[in-house]
């Protein structure tokens, strides 16, 4: 199964919502997240970190967007701590691991993995070094700060980039 075929029913709904937004005005990666009921925690975190304006900019951006369930799976109290105003810098660091300053569609990522003999290194805006691999037909994104996460929906296109849904939170190296 290719990266582009990892869509779920929820992702198709979100993609439709994003396409509808794009018809009215160029949607941003933030608009895609706001339009998804599975990304309310991400939107809350982006707002708390003061990154909404940046991600509504020209881009291009690729956002690996953790679901609400992904944030809920963090250790008890971790999300609450990150959302405290005094921890804004740490929150920005975590969110920075999820944004790449380029538009990388599923086909682009798949090609990078193939060209890299099974893995591709990705550097994020937060200067996190991620590794993209493919296992059992699914794209996995891993970083120094934790276990690789799975891309569960791909190519949710926006006017300033693309969103790929992931099932975990990518953490910066300690």
Give a brief rundown of this model.
The chain is α+β, with helices and mostly antiparallel strands. 37% of the residues lie in helices and 26% in strands.
Verbal overview:
The structure is a single chain. With about 170 residues, the chain is of the alpha+beta class. The chain has eight helices and seven strands. It has helices at about 10-25, 30-35, 40-50, 50-55, 70, 80, 90-95, 105-115, and strands at about 60-65, 100, 120-125, 130-135, 140-145, 145-160, 160-165. Strands 2-1-7-6-5-4-3 form a seven-stranded mixed beta sheet. β5 (about 140-145) and β6 (about 145-160) form a beta hairpin. α3 crosses α7 (about 90-95). Mean pLDDT is about 85; it is low at about 1-20.
Summarize the topology.
Elements: H1 9-24, H2 29-34, H3 40-49, H4 52-55, E1 61-66, H5 68-72, H6 78-82, H7 88-96, E2 99-100, H8 106-115, E3 119-123, E4 129-135, E5 138-143, E6 146-158, E7 161-166
Parallel strand pairs: 1-7
Antiparallel strand pairs: 1-2, 3-4, 4-5, 5-6, 6-7
Question: Count of DSSP helices?
Answer: 8
Mean pLDDT: 83
- Morphology: globular
How many whole angstroms does the radius of gyration measure? 15 Å
Low-confidence stretches: 1-22
Beta-strand content bin: 25-35%
Question: What is the SS-derived class?
Answer: alpha+beta
**Percentage of helical residues?**
25-40%
Largest sheet: 7 strands, mixed
Taking the alpha carbons of the first and last residues, their distance comes to 34 Å
Give, in order, the helices and strands. Answer: HHHHEHHHEHEEEEE
Count every beta strand, where a strand is a DSSP E run of 2 or more residues: 7
Q: Strands of the largest sheet, in order across it?
A: 2-1-7-6-5-4-3
